[in-house]
Amino acid sequence: MDKLFSIAFVILQCSICLAKISPDYIKPCVGLKSDCLKKNIQDTIPLYVPGIPSIGVNSTDPLKYDLIEMELPGGLTIQFTDGVMTGLKKCIVDDVKFENNEADITLHCDIVIKGKYKAKGQILIVSLNGDGDAKLKITDILLKAKLKFADKVRNGVTHYEVKNYKVSYTIRDKVHFDLTNLFKGSPEISQTVLTFLNENWKEVVNEFGGPIIDFIVNVAFKNVQVFFREIPKDELIVL
Fold first, then answer.
1. Is the Cβ–Cβ distance between 237 and 160 less than 8 Å?
2. Which PANTHER family match (predicted)?
3. Domains, the chain
4. What are the pLDDT digits (tens) for 70-100?
């Protein structure tokens, strides 16, 4: 009888393991205490950012995008292609708070964005007519995310979905631009414009960088929404 009970218990445990959707590195925090959440999120980031294909979570480090097109103030048109962003896997979690179905997460990172670009128009007091390689290095960007959650039952299973989110950022150090061929056919003017952009990076980012950074941050957090939509609540939260 004891042997039959043991076999049944093993089968039950195996069934639970097979039914589990979340990766093994996801560790629930009892009572959702801040210290536990901070540690778990920090430990999870480098394992999570390559993606979880089994549930449709794409890679966010590297984060690849084929095309971004936008028209910015002053009639400046920019097109980015073959873009790659790296750096999220080394983000440092500064603080996590959870209360009343709302999470506040603060973290900081160094981010590098590479790709091909085309740009034409006015940026501050200089004119651009460029087509070349682009590299942006953002040093010490502070990200603050607020996520609101709500229970949603699907097929008898409760999920803790992200109802909405808001992400703000502050660049605490600087942005360095490395852009080739900023002014077609004139390496001298291109270098002068590049020097101007780097010397005035804060004004450039404040005026023109927001839409680009917003696009990339929102792509990353869309993956967070997918993650919570697919993972059952009882695999994430232990009260």
1. yes
2. PROTEIN TAKEOUT-LIKE PROTEIN, RE70318P
3. 27-238 (3.15.10.30)
4. 887 778 898 999 999 999 999 999 999 999 9
